[in-house]
Amino acid sequence: MNGAPLARYDATLQGLARKGRLRTLSPRAGLDFSSNDYLGLAASRRLGDAVAAAIARGTPVGATGSRLLRGNAPEHVDEPYISPMVDTIVEVMGKA
Q1: Do 75 and 59 touch, CB atoms closer than 8 A?
Q2: pLDDT at res. 15
Q3: CA terminus-to-terminus distance, the chain
Q4: pTM of the model
Q5: What is the rounded CA–CA span in Å between residue 1 and residue 50?
């Protein structure tokens, strides 16, 4: 190699640009129905604070496997725990 190992890629990209076929990434805009955050909850400060408090209490959070394989945690069946969490999610989504 002669000091320009990526030259062939540059030439290909320039060719695509000349033909109007070069694709680029755009900033996020609009509603997101193509990711795991289609409800937009990842940007919620209130939900983030609730998750941080749950972690501090030792509550298991995150994507685990099936509860049938991994077992149940008390938080999965404890109505006094679940009800406020659901209320918070509904309120954050503006449906309350």
Answers
A1: yes
A2: 94
A3: 63
A4: 0.42
A5: 54
